[in-house]
Design a protein that fits this description.
By secondary structure, this protein is of the alpha/beta class. The chain is built from 32 helices and 17 strands. The strands form 4 sheets. The protein has a 7-stranded parallel beta sheet with strand order 3-4-2-5-6-1-7, sandwiched between helices. Helix 12 runs antiparallel to helix 13. The longest helix is centred in the C-terminal third of the chain and has 25 residues. It starts with a helix and ends with a helix. Bound molecules: adenosine-5'-diphosphate and zinc ion. The site of zinc ion (ZN) has 8 residues, from helix 14 and helix 15.
Amino acid sequence: MPVEATKNQVFLNLKNYFGYDSFRANQQDIVEAVLNKKDCLVIMPTGGGKSICFQLPALSFKGVTIVISPLIALMKDQVDGLNANGIPASFFNSSQSSEEQFAIIEHVIRAEIKLLYVAPESLAALQNILTEKYISCVAIDEAHCISSWGHDFRPSYQQLGFLKTTLPNIPFIALTATADRATREDVVKQLRIEDAQRFMSSFDRENIGLEVRPANNRISQIIKFIKTRPNQSGIIYCLSRKTTEQLAKKLKANSIPAEAYHAGLNFDKRSKVQESFIHDKTQIVCATVAFGMGIDKSNVRWVVHYNMPKNIEGYYQEIGRAGRDGLKSHALLFHSYADVIQLQNFASGASNEAVQIAKLDRMKQFSEATTCRRKILLGYFGELLGGSCGNCDVCKNPPQFFDGTIIAQKILSAIYRLKQKEAMGIIIDVLRGAQNAAILSKGYQEVSTFGIGKDISWKHWQHFVIQLINQGFCEIAFHKNNALQLTAFSSQVLFKEAKVALTKPIAVTEIKPVVKEKRSRLKRTKTTSKAKSANSNLFERLRQLRYKIASEEGIPAYLVFSDATLKKIERERPLSESEFLSISGVGQRKLEVYGDEFMAEIMNFMGSKVKKLKKGDTYTVTYELYKTGLSIEEIAVQRKLNVTTIYSHIAKLYSTGKKINIYDFVTKSDVEAVQKAKKALDSPKALRPYFEYFNETVDYFKIRLALSVIEKD
Ligand code: ADP
Ligand code: ZN
């Protein structure tokens, strides 16, 4: 196969089928390697764009590409997504009837589909067609599941080892978001593709803004956070099942649509919550870490950690579920010492206690960082970020240090006076002179440090104590009721005049995820906030239309168009087929199936704005040309617009009372037929149902013209 010719074809396919004009990092090299029949190991973070790496080559192969995937829910979404892009694909699993299975096998034999998704358990049933005559490539998604060293081992994946022996001459591509080197090497060994070419992508997800806040009044902070993000999908991770339920209940009580999800719910309930989240019907899910694997939803806009995660791997995987579409997204973590203590307790006694504690420590360091958080995260995955990210709370609000020696001395002497027996809460109460039962019953009001820190708020004291712990001037004795104790360094502060630098507490204000270099541009656009709100109005209309179409087709909204594509449609306002096709994320099929409705929506939107409009608006221009006696085709040529667009102008002009000889374009019997359809279909808003009613034999523009006649009469 001449590689150059293939290259062009690949770019054409990228645009025609997926609607993208360019590859993301590594994608092109991987696609070429697969096309050159090389085995590949692909390591990319969640949302990095792994699917294209095997879906695109699949289009160029003669036979079928088998995709091994661990979850049935995941397969269905991927197949729906492929079909929405006009790519014939199916899945094969045990939930299907034997007739269905037989039909799929026939499709493979006749090479009528390009991709077949299979769970490892179902491979045996495909034995007869697992030959190089029918199969051109094998992709193993979530490939870390094959390694017992990975965090998600699945015994069924172990049968995959034999596949390479059965299909030695076709390329295998293994894909995973697990960066851990030992697991990686185990994967290629188990799959018997030791010579696979390795592709490691950066783990940076720069569109996700990172933020950590102290866990005071979490619920009200969360409610505020959500209220500033209307209609945005989000996940809130909690440590316990109970918390997920309580939180969902509280959010609902505040008119926020949220559902709980955890492994204790029955299968039906879990599937229902997951489905309804994927389909944009439930805006928010409060979940344990059981939620998320296999959820490809690209428009999750934020992830909140109500509790601290156990380790950075888990945290990164969870926040990675936000912003797969590349649009700006937000990750908010609440940091609480109570959580740290609870996690320490969970770890204690475990067979790998030391490892767990060490991992928790790194998580803690991340939460308490006074330098760029993204740097810390990427450093953890062995990547060096040159410079600071500009998209984390530390970068946006760098901590200000001051001489905190006196504050430190007050804290340490309180610890000393209370005989190193009390936990943080009591120490702070004593400093603030609190007269509560716990203090009075122990007679702590007599201690010399009692009330010496009334001028500082409770929260700020907490902020300072935590810093002293981090700097090693005191520590928590986890096995002694979490009492604060002095360390070898405490005496330097208490008696040897060592200076202690502390950071000022930062008022909790929302950070706005803005990438640094884009700031100046953002400032400039501020002045046009009117235009912006008009636009977001259009976005909302486009979003509603997307939701309506998705519901009709029974697929998730993001499979119709991703948020990123919808934003581009909003910005560019395409009104012709060629303009619509130029939008990233719009391929040939989506243009054909959805183009008209979206363009009609844009036109309606502009039409309603245009009422007050002056010269030069698009309808007026068309009308002026029409009045000169030009034909529709001639107007289209003059205006460099599509004929369909001009027809929709004519319909609009007619319905707003302009003098149009409408029956030049549509016959009375056309109108009658549409009238009949309207009745039968119960007056749908969109044109598509009509189009389908007429078995796709009547053009959209005719339907639209006929409707304008009906509506005017
Ligand atoms: P992963 O499987 O690595 O988590 P996906 O394959 O689901 O990621 O891709 C994540 C998102 O990125 C999807 O919405 C996908 O359509 C989009 N995407 C992938 N490749 C490109 C590209 N070259 N240009 C624009 N968007 C892309
Ligand atoms: Zn940063």
